[in-house]
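Hypothesis: this fold can be encoded by more than one sequence.
Test: take the structure tokens below, design a sequence, compare later.
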């Protein structure tokens, strides 16, 4: 973001400065991320422009009931990513959240994303409440595979027993990992600030977490290209890969 004189400071820059002050002064900041934070890493979102669900019906391609009858559907939309898993890299937005954690200003990242990019960025405390495409297992003998090392095929079958393989992700109709979800709800109840980044707030129970935080007295800071959470005190209408590093720069100016 180029330097501008005081009269040209945009509303976005004012909101970024407000966000930096809030993160610096209030305790217990957590982040909730959605597909938007990974768009700048070349991974399409689901519902916004170029989203996966514009091409594929999630009730067919991402439903556990359909998977049990025809696993090739889910593998059609996820096989390519898993086999190219190492080619996807975190962007400045992921790296900024890792830096906030290193600075002691971020307790954890609660993510709906299954792309593993928060882990790749070096973030330590990550709650993958929709699971991850990094781990794949045989539904029959439970043998574990790690992306990108899986057998060929759509779907791929287990090399030990011939059972069908399933990524360790939450499909529609499945429950979320109980431990991760319970911790995410606790962190949302106890936080002083929640950064809500790149999520359209369409899928529950993840979409309820900002409301839980807000009701518990936390300040919500939304970074998104649409204002999905009108109850957010601060709304930054900017790409997360630009806004998050800028917030860190402002925090360093304050320190
Ligand atoms: N920076 C910030 N926000 C962005 C960016 C960006 N560069 N690009 C897109 N966005 C925003 C969009 O405006 C939209 O609000 O990210 C959001 C993406 O919304 P969705 O595609 O609905 O993704 P998400 O909210 O994560 O979906 C939640 O739905 O299908 C399920 O399991 C899937 O975890 C997913 C869940």
């Amino acid at each position: 973001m180029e330097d501008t004189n005081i009269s040209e400071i945009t509303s976005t820059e004012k909101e970024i400065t407000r966000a930096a002050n809030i993160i610096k002064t209030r305790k217990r900041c957590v982040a909730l991320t959605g597909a938007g934070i990974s768009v700048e890493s070349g991974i399409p979102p689901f519902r916004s422009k170029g989203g996966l669900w514009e091409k594929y019906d999630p009730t067919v391609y991402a439903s556990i009931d359909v998977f049990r009858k025809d696993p090739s559907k889910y593998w059609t939309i996820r096989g390519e990513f898993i086999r190219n898993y190492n080619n996807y890299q975190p962007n400045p937005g992921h790296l900024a959240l890792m830096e906030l954690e290193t600075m002691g200003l971020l307790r954890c990242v609660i993510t709906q994303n299954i792309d593993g990019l928060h882990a790749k960025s070096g973030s330590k405390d990550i709650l993958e409440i929709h699971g991850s495409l990094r781990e794949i297992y045989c539904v029959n003998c439970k043998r574990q595979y790690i992306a990108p090392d899986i057998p060929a095929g759509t779907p791929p079958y287990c090399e030990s027993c011939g059972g069908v393989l399933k990524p360790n992700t939450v499909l529609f109709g499945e429950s979320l990992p109980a431990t991760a979800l319970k911790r995410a709800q606790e962190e949302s109840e106890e936080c002083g600030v929640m950064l809500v980044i790149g999520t359209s707030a369409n899928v529950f129970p993840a979409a309820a977490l900002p409301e839980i935080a807000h009701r518990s007295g936390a300040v919500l800071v939304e970074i998104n290209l649409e204002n999905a959470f009108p109850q957010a005190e601060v709304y930054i209408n900017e790409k997360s890969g630009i806004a998050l590093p800028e917030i860190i720069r402002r925090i360093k100016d304050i320190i």
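The chain has a mean pLDDT of 95. The first strand starts at residue 29 and ends at 33.
Hypothesis status: open.
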